Amino acid sequence: MNRKKVAYIRTLFLFIVLAVLNHCSASPEIKQPGNNTTRAPSIVTVEIVQMKFKPEVLYVNKGDSVVFINKDMVDHDVTDEPGGSWTSTTLNPGQSWGKTITRNEDYFCSLHVIMKGKIRLENQ
Fold this sequence. Notes:
Blueprint: H1 3-25, E1 43-49, E2 52-54, E3 57-60, E4 65-70, E5 79-80, E6 96-100, E7 105-109, E8 112-121
Parallel strand pairs: 1-4, 3-8
Antiparallel strand pairs: 1-2, 4-6, 5-7, 7-8
């Protein structure tokens, strides 16, 4: 192969790689109600460790997802407070459960009622 063809193929390959990387890093844009800015929903983690939800109070945007991960040595769950209108399954150590947030939420572990947490919307 001559040098011009090799240079052309290298340039084309680099262009394709850069285009793919640019496409993969682009986030979909979503309009937030009452807000002219756009952003993709986030996934935020709450760890269950040492009989506590960490962080105890979590600030997110409407539409974000929260994933609860049980990193404790015993089973836990995540249940709406008051009323229990939603609840996770029992989370064995190492298991996780997620929820999309649409409003402020207070929650607790129904297996260990002293464990409590809050999720608050930043932009209402």
